[in-house]
Design brief:
alpha+beta, 17 strands, C8orf32 fold, single chain
Amino acid sequence: MSLTAHNDDIQLRVALPPQIDRQIVREEFFGSPEFAFHINRDGANRWGIWEKSNATGYYALVYSGTVRAEARRYKLPPRIDLPKRVPAEVESYLLPSEYIQADSAEVRNLFEQLVPASDRGNAAAIVRAAFDYTSKVIQSVELKGTTDAITTLRLGEASCGGKSRLFAALCRAGGIPARLVGGLILKDGIWRSSHIWVEAWIAGMWVPFCPLNGYFAEIPSHYLILYYGDQPLLTHSADINFNYSFHGKKVLAPPAEAMQAAKKFPAGTLSLWWAFEQVRIPLNLLKIILMIPFGALVVVLARNVIGIETFGTFMPALMAVAFRDTGLAWGLMLFLAILLCGGIIRCGLQWFQLLHTPKLAILMTATVTFIMAAILLGVATGQVLPTRASTFPLMILTLTVERFAIIWEEEGLGKAVKVVVGTVFVIAGAFVVMNWQSLQIIVVTFPETLLLVVAAFVIVGRWTGMRFGEYMRFRELIFRKER
């Protein structure tokens, strides 16, 4: 989130994911040092409140967390009798509201058309009729703003909010408590839109329905609940040029029950997950550690079998680890930019005839400055991925810049570019292998797989044949000899 204030008193309220049985939230982080922050609980909802008096200038605020959400599917029998009474905490969801006009004549007439008189005491028949109408008859379109039930009915089209409100109105008209649920459809990448669906009180439990995407009595695992009720996801003070976006990335982590079992069995990877969590070290770090040997294997194959020349021995594997936060495309762009700028600076330092160590220190300072500039540019433009460049290994980058400049100076720009291309190719290969989720699952489940990597190192280490690159380099000599 970002905002620009002009000596204003700022308050920002954002829905935070609740801890419920189908979704577990942990590793929460609130990045807003200039603002006072607290969490306000309202029933099942959690609201993050950011406040600051006399705010002036540009501010960036961050909320992040790791969530594991489970899919749930409910099998409804053909007939479920409507209850004669509902719990007191559920009664309010039978009443009409500003945007869910369950008592209007139009909604009532539609309900009587959809549900025969013989089925009006059957909750299963009511929700089926309401769902079929809102998901199939009402057309799906992108509409901005709030669309109420009546407008949806009259237009015959709506987005998730309008469809869900009409579905809730039909349920309430039939005597079934129904409430809106707001949240996100999780995915890899960056997006702005949130999502709304419905929960209906059936047989003593809240059953989910999504008329827009066709989920009847089920909620998929990528649906993240943020709040309950027909209310905005976030509210903020006026005239602050507010902007926000959601950033998602799928990560590998063990389920909670496996973590509990790991306490009793000290052997195995799961116990390592549990140990890392106990000392407040991110669990993702263990996955990175376990995957580094596979990145090293890519480097060994590239150098010893294919014959690709790179900067450093295992620098490509370590850079692939750094690209985990920025992504491959952003990471390579930043890496090449740092390499070019650092190479130019290093050539300029030749005029001062400095000793080797002070020269490296200046290059490292220039690298740090470039990374800080990338972070500030990312914040100013709203691009969060470049701001994660701070995870780049500074000393490795510094030595790489030094090596790049030396090759450029001694062997020419063509040779330096060739080594850069080879390095980029190997980094990309290591990144793909180390982030291959199927391989991650195998390694985390069976850490003894690393013994196979050691065996591969032994085999490649005894390689006595020519590299593939040498076949290309000496192809005329080799083919002439064969002829």
